[in-house]
Design goal:
The complex is a heterodimer. Chain A has helices at residues 11-22, 57-63, 73-79, 83-86, 114-128, 139-148, 183-187, 215-228; strands at 3-8, 27-30, 39-42, 47-52, 68-72, 87-92, 98-105, 132-136, 154-158, 174-179, 190-201, 203-208. By secondary structure, chain A is α/β, with parallel strands linked by helices. In chain A, strand 8 (132-136), helix 6 and strand 9 (154-158) form a beta-alpha-beta unit. Chain B has a 9-stranded mixed beta sheet, sandwiched between helices. Classes of the chains: A alpha/beta, B alpha+beta.
Chain lengths: 230, 363
């Protein structure tokens, strides 16, 4: 039986993943045309590559349809409840780094910390009759972070793209979004709270706890772990 | 999944309990399984999304599967109930479980709620005694508390109303409450940019474009507040220590009463809340409750549901830490003020979980 390895199916994340495994003696390649979502694995026996959208990999790991999978650590935490009981982190891969941060308008000169955000949320709700809106795609992560830090009187607004623009468009007062350099946030006149780092994400190799682990797949996993030094 | 026999036994027990509350003078009421999400979100905030199932109706918008009965029962009563009024109900509530798959996502609750009246101590005692009576003679341990003590202690602090309001807002969030107390007590340093902000004449001058609905006037007002706060002396060590002492009170109710009487010498505004506790203990005695070994914890009931603001209680099976409390309840006057847009009514109630009751009995 082969070990199924889920890999992001396109873009930089795919290329970087191929490169990462390649330098560790495991050559991953796309089979056939660009449109075909199957792959070739050389340099190790018993591994089948499955190309998937990075956003689907957490679910596939959780269901045990793949044994291993590469995706952002933020995706796993956002999409899987009790993520650490469903998957195990085998190796952080050192690329695809991005921070999920809470950002507010630069003009809010009185807001530096979560403590300020909480105070402003109370003031805002009293003055505007609704909660301070934070636009995000990462509902679970942000809600848990703000609960943990005791921030109240906010509401999360769903934003699946161009989140930085929501404040300018008056559909949110603040955002919780992924940034690698902060440039897009600055270009949209937003600033990150000093203690507003929700999660520092990077591409990570995960192991599914629910997959079918038999002698053959366990043996293959040990071989992979030896190659990657995990 | 749901086993028929287990479910039927729980339902039978719920009906029995409902009957007992009914013969005690409570009026049975029903509420919808689907509740408008807006009311609940407004009341509990974003946290409720993590705990309640949300669905939607094309015409009514977002709806939630009933996470508890309290809100709809309060609304029903406020729309025209008698004063005083006693209600009882039985039915399913639904809770998402993001952390623990062993916890049920739907279970029964049988409740008793008392509204109005002129003697809150008597109403508190009546609900507690009614719960204790229908749960007897099970090997249960009762715990009690009183959020009103902490509220009174905060109100009695020698500091600004703004600081007191900030602390009161976070009574139910122990970690943030602690952070605020440390800051107001001068125990934590102010953020690095704060001094600069407060010393700048026109801090908004180079701030860039103001985006979103928060106005310049609001920012200026907050800066003014920060200025005032920077000039406010820290809450004294003596008073901080008193709050700590109150939070760590964990004794029998009569011993707590004695300790609080001592403390109110240093914090006179505590006195009325302590009097209320004393009156409640007397009322409990009048209902035949043995208060001498009744456990009291001042931090009891400070969970994330912003709910109880006075007397709180819970009943748990002795030696069964694996089971959640079989019954919980308390006073929630503040919640009725929010739902009634300022018009509040005295309200106290409690719920029993028949499934937990059966699980505890069969062990």
């Amino acid at each position: 039986m082969t070990l199924r390895l889920g890999v992001p199916s396109k873009g930089r994340l795919m290329e970087k993943t191929f490169e990462w495994f390649g330098t560790r003696g495991i050559a991953l390649r796309r089979a056939g045309s660009e449109r075909e979502y199957s792959g070739l694995v050389e340099g190790i026996d018993g591994v089948e590559m499955v190309l998937l959208s990075a956003g689907e990999i957490p679910r596939e790991l959780s269901a045990g349809r793949i044994h291993l999978g590469v995706t952002g650590s933020d995706m796993v935490r956002e999409k899987l409840a009790n993520w650490d009981q469903q998957v195990r982190e085998i190796a952080p891969m050192g690329f695809g780094g991005a921070d999920l941060v809470i950002a507010v308008p630069q003009a809010w000169v009185d807001v530096e910390t979560l403590d300020d955000l909480d105070a402003v949320a109370a003031q805002f709700r009293a003055g505007h009759g609704h909660r301070l809106r934070i636009a995000t795609k990462y509902h679970r992560l942000v809600r848990e972070f703000l609960r943990e830090h005791g921030v109240a009187d906010y509401a999360l607004i769903d934003s699946q793209g161009a989140t930085e623009g929501t404040v300018k468009n008056d559909s949110a007062e603040a955002v919780a979004d992924i940034t690698s350099t902060g440039e897009t946030l600055r270009a949209n006149f937003l600033k990150v709270l000093s203690d507003g780092l929700v999660h520092a994400s990077q591409a990570t190799l995960f192991k599914s706890r629910a997959a079918d682990w038999n002698d053959a797949t366990r043996g293959t996993l040990r071989e992979i772990e030896a190659r990657i030094g995990a | 999944m749901i086993q028929s026999e287990v479910k039927r036994a729980a339902r039978d027990r719920a009906t029995l309990l409902l009957g007992l509350f009914q013969s005690g003078g409570a009026m049975p009421v029903e509420t919808g399984l689907l509740q408008p999400a807006e009311t609940l979100l407004d009341l509990y905030g974003e946290d409720i999304r993590g705990r309640a199932f949300v669905t939607s109706d094309p015409l009514r918008g977002e709806m939630m599967l009933r996470p508890d009965f309290t809100v709809p029962v309060v609304q029903m009563h406020m729309a025209g109930g008698a004063d005083p009024a006693r209600y009882t109900y039985a039915g399913e509530v639904f809770r998402k479980q993001e952390a623990d798959p062993a916890r049920p996502i739907e279970y029964l609750q049988v409740g008793l709620e008392l509204f109005g009246g002129t003697d809150p101590a008597a109403a508190d005692a009546e609900v507690f005694a009614a719960m204790a009576e229908v749960l007897a003679p099970l090997p249960l341990r009762a715990a009690t508390g009183d959020i009103g003590i902490l509220v009174a202690a905060v109100q009695g602090l020698d500091t600004t109303e703004v600081r007191k309001a900030a602390l009161l807002r976070h009574i139910w969030r122990p970690r943030r409450f602690r952070q605020l107390l440390d800051r107001f007590g001068g125990r934590t340093p102010t953020p690095p940019g704060r001094a600069m902000l407060l010393s700048t004449k026109d801090p908004l001058a180079d701030a860039g474009p103001l985006l979103g609905k928060r106005t310049e006037a609001e920012i200026a007002k907050r800066i003014e507040r920060l200025r005032q706060d920077a000039e406010t002396p820290p809450i004294s060590e003596v008073q901080l220590a008193l709050i700590d002492a109150i939070l760590s009170l964990r004794e029998t109710a009569p011993n707590v009463l004695v300790a609080l009487r001592d403390m109110s010498a240093d914090l006179p505004l505590l006195e009325p809340a302590v009097d209320r506790l004393a009156a409640r203990l007397d009322a409990l005695v009048a209902h035949g409750i043995a208060v001498d070994d009744l456990a009291f914890e001042a931090s009891f009931g400070r969970t994330s549901m912003e709910y109880y603001d006075g007397f709180v209680f819970g009943f748990s099976f002795d030696g069964r830490p694996d089971l959640p409390p079989v019954a919980t309840g308390g006073r929630y006057d503040a919640l009725t003020r929010v739902l009634g847009q300022g018009r509040g009514i005295p309200a106290v109630g409690g719920v029993i979980r028949p499934e937990v009751l059966i699980a505890g009995e069969t062990s």
